[in-house]
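Section handout, structural biology tutorial.
Before the tutorial, make sure you can parse a SMILES string by hand: atoms, branches in parentheses, ring closures as digits. In the record below the ligand is adenosine-5'-triphosphate, and the chain has 866 residues. In the tutorial you will relate the predicted structure tokens back to the input. Do not try to memorize them.
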Amino acid sequence: MAQPTTSSRQNTVRQPTPDRNRQNAPRPSRDNGSAGRLREPRPSFDWGAALDSWFSDQRSTLTLGVLLMLLAVGLFIAFISYLITGQADQSVVGAAFSQPLAESGPETRNWVGLVGAFVAHVFVFRWFGVGALTLPIIMFLAGYKLTLRRELLPLSRATAGLLFLSVWSSLLLGYIVLVTDSAETDSIWCGGIGYEFNVALYSLFGWGNLAFIGFVLFLFVVYFFDVRNIKLPSFSAPNLAGGVRPKSPKRPDDTLQSYEESEADYEETVPDYTAPVDFSHSVPVPEEAISSPDSPLNDAHHQEASVPELIAKTTGVTLTIKNRESVTDDPVAEPEELGATPAPTFEPDPFEDDDLVATHGLYDPTLDLPQYQYPTNDLLTEYQNTRKAQVSEDELTANKERIETTLRNFGIEIDSIQASIGPTVTLYEIVPAKGVRISKIKSLEDDIALNLSALGIRIIAPMPGMGTIGIEVPNKNREMVSMRSVITSDIFTSSKFDLPIVLGKTISNEIYVADLAKMPHLLMAGATGQGKSVGLNVLLTSLIYKKHPSQLKLVLVDPKKVELTLFNKLERHFLAKLPDSEEPIITDTKKVVNTLNSLCIEMDNRYNLLKDGGCRNLKEYNAKFVKRRLNPDKGHRFLPYIVLIVDELADLMMTAGKEVEQPIARLAQLARAIGIHLVVATQRPSVNVITGLIKANFPARLSFKVTSKIDSRTILDTGGAEQLVGMGDMLLSSNSDIIRLQCPFVDTNEIEDLCDYVGNQRGYDEAYALPEFIGDDGGQSDDKDVDLDNRDPMFDEAARLIVIHQQGSTSLIQRKLKLGYNRAGRLIDQLEAAKIVGAFEGSKARDVLVQDLQMLEEILKRLKGD
Ligand SMILES: Nc1ncnc2c1ncn2[C@@H]1O[C@H](COP(=O)(O)OP(=O)(O)OP(=O)(O)O)[C@@H](O)[C@H]1O
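Predicted structure of the complex:
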């Protein structure tokens, strides 16, 4: 049987507290076994946390951001002014310290007064010359980022570049001023740094100074632009007549994400193949059009272009397109021009091109919703008077004496006993006298509990890694661990886990944060009213506080129909659902089965994507996608984590049995690598609910108080959970370690505020769509009477898309044409009726019945003629 332990494990972090670390030890004295006084370590002010919380407050960042931008504008004006009027101001600045300010002020000619003149004198005259102008630019960029939470330019890169420019321009201008002997009049342009540098070295190297300055520039270019990424052939971009490009895209980073952007207008212009293009509109191009070595399309960037753009490039026909909606109406889309063979894949993948990162920067999924604000701490209640467990010295002494007496009555002598007070229980650690067998103490568990007349005694014999025995005794007055106290803790805020969940406080008051991604699934049990729902809310709250909606999707299954309803409001941010379902939270058993199967399809799809991308797991895959190494036109996309929460497995197992068990087990077995994680809760941890198949695939298990030792064994493989004291008191078992935790408390009104806060922000158009899954009974498409005379306006475009991709999938239409599920579904029905795609075949994509665009155009013409 697994030995209980309180040791930490790989995927958890605990707040180091003095007593667990045995350094500052706020423990009772060991002398005579008498109760010691528990001393609190003196709290020291935590600057890091204070700064963090200051920066997480939007008011602070807004104030600082606006201030920085105002300062930047002021400085910029002051510097420009100094470059014009600086000669005159130099004497004023020089005299500023020797004469009253009232006299210096009016003499200043700088547009920003004496202060402007003074600051400019230092930065421009003393230091960088005209290069000082970069400083206000950097400040402005930083202020803009703080204010609007988005970047005008990548800040760190721009800062590095601009700082280099300021120093380098100073050096170069310093050289020019020196060799032209114009320091009297022009040293203001180069500043003191550049001039003094050149003066110091000129006598030694002469014109070698210039060579040095040139070399510095060379070094900068080599490293800043990382020449390894520059592919020489791409320097000579093909110069084709005609083409389209987006009119001044707002941000390069936005090329792959346009959820919040309106469609850009397009104008006829000189082709610019390096300009970012919205991938969501792009489709692959027939191979012939690309594979030819002298094809203008044989370049990484060209894959990003849309069909008409590509046609324009291949044929030389120039399109004038105001809006992409009109693309398919354009008569130039002659299929012959494109070549007849549809070949949706490219080999080798021209996307393997670092230039994309150099041009667009790294892909940032959070730019899907750039204005998204993470929830603030004040949404959670700060409970007063509940901060510390109240265990009096009398209680400690009494318990110690009773433990000692009880043990002595059974003939067990002890050397010492000491206590650590936790939020719910106090741990008495006993060092038994030499020769006492530990199994003897363990066997007396019930007798000791009886003598201490307290529920919830748990004996840990021996304490792992120590020669001691632990006895946990519940406190008379327990501490309520508020959600706010754990969410705002350093350990949680600074956690770098992929899916950090804060599970509560340990016996030694350490905050316990685990990584759901490493668990990788969690099975939760607990009799009714013991804190399971609160536990699930805590878990969800942790994730929502830490994750951006683009990084995490939740699938919520709630057969009880009441527990998770509040999370409805997160539909367009965090929730994922089946495309045809109305409700984002799944309550109906049939739908649950479909959802689980749909997740299995998502899992298979993700595995295929990983295989295509040559990655072993989600992290590697996303990292590669972020570096723009995976081509979105080949179906690659940033994959958010998916967390499936099932509140009440028992209900489902009773009604659907195997239908539920199998997909859950399959997901639990395979889904960890592709970022799908399961949290399954049940009131009834009996073997027909937590079957062997399910249990075997959930290594991490959490138990609130259960009603019997058998239940405890079912969930934890050991007793103990029946002795918990309720209200969030729980045991976590993972990798055969068992640890007792007090779950934080989060109330429904806090959840409501949190969901309102997130839900009221701008979100995606709809919930994250899981793949279609239709069970044996078919389920959808009740009326198949499709009227082809009444075709959707996007019919032609959808047909071309399907034929070019040779993939009859609704989600392809949805994604590429940016349509809702229902409309895409109607389109696919119409395409089926027009015999362009085949019939629905369960989870497989439909067959495409039309082989090439030429055939398709004939069908379309016929349809129009009818
Ligand atoms: N971590 C906690 N700290 C303090 N009190 C708690 C905690 N968790 C639960 N409680 C108390 O226990 C009550 C019941 O908790 P909860 O609703 O989570 O139980 P449950 O196990 O989900 O019950 P059911 O299965 O019937 O829904 C809460 O209303 C709250 O008063």
